[in-house]
Amino acid sequence: MGRLIRKSGFATEVGNGHYCASSCPLVFAGGIERRADEKSAIGVHQVTGIGASAATAGNGMESVQRISAECQRYLRDMGIDSLVWIHAMETPRDELFYFKPDELLTLKLATARGTPTASVGTKPKS
User: Fold this and answer.
1) What's the number of domains the chain is made of?
2) pTM for this structure?
């Protein structure tokens, strides 16, 4: 979904009082411009390899490692610092690591704060 957002030239935003957690930051990362307001909450946690089928521990670990590699590659392709994924992998799956506003910018998960004046990827009205 994030790659489609990027290909389409769209911006993403998490407004004041709203949150984006779990897999949502991966979608957010797809935006050409990624805005996070001061009072927004963006959080990550470990990948979970538990599915409906009874998988062996080895198969589950293999799946999680593959997903982790795909997510790392995706974030790199989006221009985002690898520390974003490290925070995710250090945080238990039933908890969330929330980024501070300055961290979002430093790690390039967000490109700006606040509300945009014009939408990226939309044509001006004539």
Assistant:
1) 1
2) 0.82
CATH code at 33? 3.90.226.10
pLDDT at 112 over 70: yes
Write out the residue range of the structural domain in which residue 38 sits. Answer: 2-106
Q: Which residue has 């039933």 as its token pair? A: 94
Q: 3-class secondary structure for the chain?
A: CHHHHHHHCCCEEECCCCEEECCHHHHHCCCCCEEECCCCEEEECCCCCCCCCCCCHHHHHHHHHHHHHHHHHHHHHCCCCCHHHHHHHHCCCCCCEECCHHHHHHCCCCCECCCCCCCCCCCCCC
